[in-house]
Amino acid sequence: MSEPHILIVDDDTVLLQALPAFLRLRMGTVKIDTCDSALEALSQIAAWDYDAIISDIKMPGMDGLSLMAEVRLLRPNTPTLLITGHGEHDLAVRALQGGAYAFIQKPIDRDSFMVSLIGAIQKRQLSRDTERGS
Amino acid sequence: MEVANTSDFVQTQQNNLEALASETQSTLHERVRVLEERVRKAEERRRALIHIMGDLNELNKRLAEQRKAMIHILGDYEKDRRRMAAQTERLDNSRRALLHILQDSHQSNLRLEKTRKAMIHIMDDLHKTTEEIKQREKQLTEKQEQLVQAAKLATLGELTTGVAHELNNPLNNIGLFLGNAIDRIDLGVWEKNQIVEELHHAMQQVGKATEIISHLRTFGRAAPVSRELVPIKMVIVRSISLIQEQLRLRQIRTELDLCSENPMVIGNSIQLEQVFLNVLTSARDALANATRKLIQVRCHVEQGKVKLAFCDTGPGIAEGLEQRIFDPFFTTKEVGAGTGLGLSITYGIIKEHQGTISVEKSRPGEGAIFLIELPLASP
């Protein structure tokens, strides 16, 4: 797996500090960008072909579900992992229905989160290989 | 012979006559003296009489003067008498009037006595009623406290979603920071500084969560309603901080325009926080479909009062509902979305604080403005 490039979107700036640190510890080599709003994320997504996008759902302005809808148009093959609050099952269902690769409940279970993220990255890199191959 | 005899006789007669004359003269002298004596006495008496007459005349004059004086005095007496008579008549009239009054008074006294007895009954009833009212008031106060508590819990319930999200964030971050520390140790790539930094970040997040919970606990506590000096600006800021997360997620901006002074009111900070939360929640809901989402909170001091205004950019209060919105169980929200108690409890709390709450008539295109006035605590 080549060095993955990941985008994290959350309006909680503390999470934008803690989560990348965690991913760097677990994944070693990883390139991580962070945004604290969906609008800012959209310009980043337009500029970069990320291996995975991790976004919170509840954010002021454009929320994670709307961001994901935009991603589906801009980068249909980029997997999106949406973060929901604990017990917000309806949001989780809506996330999956909207095409999310996975939903992650806060507080984040780090191991299962890693499994989902690595799966997402592998999926994206596979699809990229397929694109290159075709 | 005859002749001799005649001469004798004549002599004798003469002698007799002389003797007689002498006797008569002496008698006459005596009689004259007696008469003269009588005349002298009569003269003395006359003089004495004249004297007496003079005295009498003098006396008579004095008597005449005295009579005149008496007549004068009598005139005065007469006047006095008439006056006295008139006064007596008046007094008599007064007496009769007084008698009437006394009779009336007696009647009144009798009536008063009856009334007094009736009043005693009424007082007794009133006493019983007052006791009952006191009992009811006590029950009412208890119920009101329960209601306020219930409303607080309802507000808390409404806030739960936002608060859960707010709590979830620090919890999640704590998990991540601690996880990172564990990972660093597990992977053997740790330096003391890094571990301390991760733990320090986690502690900060613990502090944030504690602050949220402690505020919620204070707000939800069923404490007796005490009265103390309350810094009103602080209560406003606390209320906004409790609902801030919800407002932020709904993209509702808040603008605070609080006076530079620190106005204090006598009251209960938890109850006042409940009031501000109710008004802010109401504004939050009003802004659900608004294009411009702004809540302005203004506070200034004027004429011994602190005046607060909560303005939103929502659709405003429909005409005719300005008063009804403070009625219990009145709600414009959908069934199940609101208890209809928030603003009525707000109204009750503000009234208890000797304040007023009103909603300004919305102009077309402008949102609702809630005005709250509270008396400043005397310095």
* Termini gap of chain A: 20 Å
* Number of contiguous helices of chain B: 5
- Residues in β-strands, percent of chain A: 15-25%
- The CATH top-level class label of chain A: Alpha Beta
Oligomer: heterodimer
Return the CATH topology of the domain at 227-379 in chain B. Heat Shock Protein 90
User: Can you give the helix content of chain A as a percent range?
Assistant: 40-55%
Architecture blueprint of SSEs:
The complex is a heterodimer of chains A (134) and B (379).
Chain A: E1 5-9, H1 15-27, E2 31-35, H2 38-47, E3 52-56, H3 64-74, E4 80-84, H4 89-97, E5 102-105, H5 110-133
Parallel strand pairs in A: 1-2, 1-3, 3-4, 4-5
Helix pairs in contact in A: 2-3
Chain B: H1 2-187, H2 192-220, E1 228-231, H3 232-249, E2 253-258, E3 264-267, H4 269-286, E4 294-302, E5 305-312, H5 342-352, E6 356-360, E7 369-375
Helix pairs in contact in B: 1-2, 1-3, 1-4, 3-4, 4-5
Mind explaining what this structure looks like?
The complex is a heterodimer of chains A (134) and B (379). Chain A starts with a strand and ends with a helix. Chain A has a single domain (5-133), classed as 3-Layer(aba) Sandwich (Rossmann fold), CATH 3.40.50. Chain A has helices at 15-27, 38-47, 64-74, 89-97, 110-133; strands spanning 5-9, 31-35, 52-56, 80-84, 102-105. Chain A has five helices and five strands. Chain A is of the alpha/beta class. A five-stranded parallel β-sheet of chain A has the order 2-1-3-4-5, sandwiched between helices. By secondary structure, chain B is α+β, with helices and mostly antiparallel strands. Chain B has a domain at 227-379: 2-Layer Sandwich (Heat Shock Protein 90), CATH 3.30.565. Chain B contains five helices and seven strands, in the order ααβαββαββαββ. In chain B, the strands form two sheets. A five-stranded mixed β-sheet of chain B has the order 2-4-5-7-6. In chain B, strands 1-3 form a two-stranded antiparallel sheet. The longest helix of chain B has 186 residues, at 2-187. Classes of the chains: A alpha/beta (134), B alpha+beta (379). Chains A and B meet through helix 1 of A and helix 1 and helix 2 of B.
